[in-house]
Specification:
heterodimer, A: mainly alpha, MetI-like fold, 14 helices, 74% helix, globular, disordered N terminus, B: MetI-like fold, 2 domains, 0% strand
């Protein structure tokens, strides 16, 4: 940031030209992001009443939201999901990145490609594949149940979130792995050589050189993973029609709840309030992670 | 774990940097994860070759009695008067226009951030980077309401306009321009009397080619896979992209009892949808990695 700024100043002071280059992006950004966010905040202060139409209600929507058990149900579900799925996914990603970076695998390149491949698959396709595969009607689990005489159902109300976790981990571990892998590749190889000469074994090198090198990427991946899981929508939305009796309600996740409120319940003001609260919550958590991550780096 | 301890037991004389001894244990463990990654895709390919009847009756990872892949593909393209081809063309439209425009805007903006100074630069950067953490839903609802006021919901514009903005792409372009375009070159061109836009077009932009491909690729995948935005914006099936169309078919098949079951079409359509992505991904791997590396290391 600072180096880019000083470069620019050194090169030339031509503020008007810079503005011209940035203008197309900035104008659209205003239209697509800034105005909608402001508009969202505005409509969250209104309620669609049966009598009198759209009426200004102040902070009523927010008060209602904080007393809404359906909101808490979904919010708690995604927080618990995040607390379990994100560590599993990131630890797997780190383990895979270390394994691939170690050059000890037969077919390093193959593994790098295969583990990342799921990231390119759309959520709709991955949910359909996993939904069919894990389903008991046509899927592999159905066949297994038949063979073993069991009646395990991955989409029973108690197990649906686990199945969604299997899908999310499948889709995003490779993406995170590549970020960690890139950070490992940036470590100068001479460092390992020097450590080996000093008598460090491979475990020491992982513990004292490679893992600390991942710290910055870990902050980034945690933040992006939290943003992603808090927005959980596609999988439950698609599964709701794909499998029956899965326990997926209209308020299963906050995003699903906001969607249903806005587009089937036409309570846009309330949905906007919900979306804003979730956005602030997400930003707050991302901020805390960032501060914590920075402190760790500073204390090193 | 076991591989680390066995490496310890073997002692450090085996530890060479460029070509360490391959570990079978580690390969097997990683292989398990690779299996997890590949299994759904193997399942998809196998089941795209089955007729609806075979799909219902045969084991998931076995082939059916008939090899029906070609029949399925023909059916996908003829079902509902060939609407799948329309969805495919819509998706191509959204992806090509969206990716090209968003990459161009990101390149222009990134160049301005790296090589020019302008009023409000710091605030602009802060807002744009902050916007990455705003959840999609917080945007989608007001976007829908605004677009409805303008009368552009249910048209391609409702999908295209939001896809033109790619904050992550802008960030990549900014970081890359700062590294790859020497200030001296710009200065020399200025002394030779070249205009600012000509400098960008003929000097800076060619140097940005690797980053451009990376940003194009990320846009391509994210627009091709977009589900939430078109779900909200589009009511008319004639404008659906593939993702929404497939889900529509899936709903037809799942409406228990009264709908005709067309899972074979849903599965074959899914396979056809991911083929371009897999090809783009496999042939342009280098660019994925450089993009993620830039994103990861800068922080």
């Amino acid at each position: 940031m600072s180096s880019a700024t000083t470069n620019a100043i050194r090169v030339h002071k031509r503020p008007k030209v810079g503005l011209l280059f940035i203008a197309p992006f900035a104008v659209l950004f205003l239209f697509v992001l800034v105005i909608p966010i402001c508009y969202s905040a505005y409509i969250s202060l209104f309620q669609n009443k049966l009598i009198g139409g759209n009426a200004f209600v102040g902070l009523d929507n927010y008060i209602k939201l904080f007393n809404d058990p359906q909101f808490y149900d979904g919010a708690i579900r995604v927080v618990v999901f995040t607390a379990i799925q994100v560590p599993i996914m990131l630890l797997s990603a780190i383990a895979l990145a270390l394994a691939i970076d170690s050059l000890r695998l037969h077919g390093t390149k193959f593994f790098r490609v295969v583990v990342f491949l799921p990231y390119a698959i759309p959520a709709i396709v991955s949910t359909l594949m996993w939904g069919f595969m894990l389903g008991i009607r046509y899927g592999l689990i159905g066949s297994l149940n038949e063979a073993a005489g069991t009646s395990f159902d991955p989409f029973a109300p108690e197990t649906t979130m686990i199945s969604i976790g299997v899908m999310a981990t499948w889709g995003f571990t490779g993406y995170n792995m590549l970020i960690f892998y890139a950070a490992l590749r940036a470590v100068p190889r001479e460092l390992y050589e020097a450590a080996a000469i000093d008598g460090a074994n491979e475990f020491h090198i992982v513990r004292y050189i490679k893992l600390p090198a991942l710290r910055g990427s870990l902050v980034v991946t945690i933040i992006f993973s939290i943003i992603g899981t808090f927005q959980l929508f596609n999988e439950p939305n698609i599964l709701a029609t794909l499998v029956s009796n899965s326990g997926i309600t209209s308020y299963y996740t906050p995003n699903l709840y906001a969607y249903n409120l806005a587009f089937t319940g036409s309570q846009q003001g309330y949905a906007a309030a919900l979306a804003i609260v979730m956005a602030l919550f997400t930003i707050a958590i991302a901020y805390v992670v960032q501060i914590k991550g920075m402190k760790n780096v500073l204390n090193k | 774990m076991s591989s680390t301890s066995s490496a310890l037991a073997r002692g450090k004389k085996l530890y060479t940097l460029s070509n360490p001894r391959k570990s079978t244990t580690l390969t097997l463990l990683t292989g398990l994860f690779a299996l997890y990654c590949l299994l759904p895709m193997v399942w998809l390919v196998i089941n795209a070759t089955k007729s609806q009847q075979d799909f219902v009756s045969s084991f998931g990872l076995a082939f059916g009695d008939h090899f029906a892949l070609w029949d399925n593909v023909v059916q996908v393209f003829t079902f509902q008067e060939g609407i799948f081809a329309r969805w495919l063309l819509n998706t191509v439209l959204y992806v090509v226009v969206g990716a090209l425009v968003s990459t161009l805007l990101a390149a222009l903006g990134g160049y301005a951030l790296a090589k020019h100074d302008f009023i409000g630069k710091r605030v602009f950067l802060l807002v744009v980077l902050g916007s990455i953490s705003v959840p999609g839903i917080a945007l989608a609802i007001p976007q829908f309401l605004l677009f409805a006021q303008l009368g552009i919901t249910n048209t391609p514009w409702a999908i295209l306009i939001p896809s033109f903005i790619n904050p992550f792409g802008l960030y990549l372009m900014w970081v890359f321009t700062a590294q790859a375009v020497p200030d001296g070159l710009i200065e020399a061109a200025r002394i030779d009397g070249a205009g600012e836009f000509r400098i960008f077009r003929q000097i800076a932009f060619p140097l940005l080619a690797p980053a451009t491909v990376t940003v194009l690729l990320f846009s391509f995948v994210s627009i091709w896979n977009n589900y939430f935005l078109p779900l909200i914006m589009l009511k008319d099936p004639a404008w659906y992209p593939l993702t929404i169309g497939i889900n529509q078919w899936n709903k037809l098949g799942s409406t228990a009892g009264n709908g005709e079951l067309i899972q074979n079409l849903v599965i074959t359509a899914s396979l056809l949808t991911i083929i371009p992505l897999v090809i783009a991904f496999l042939s342009l791997q280098r660019y994925w990695q450089s993009g993620l590396a830039l994103g990861a290391i800068k922080d």
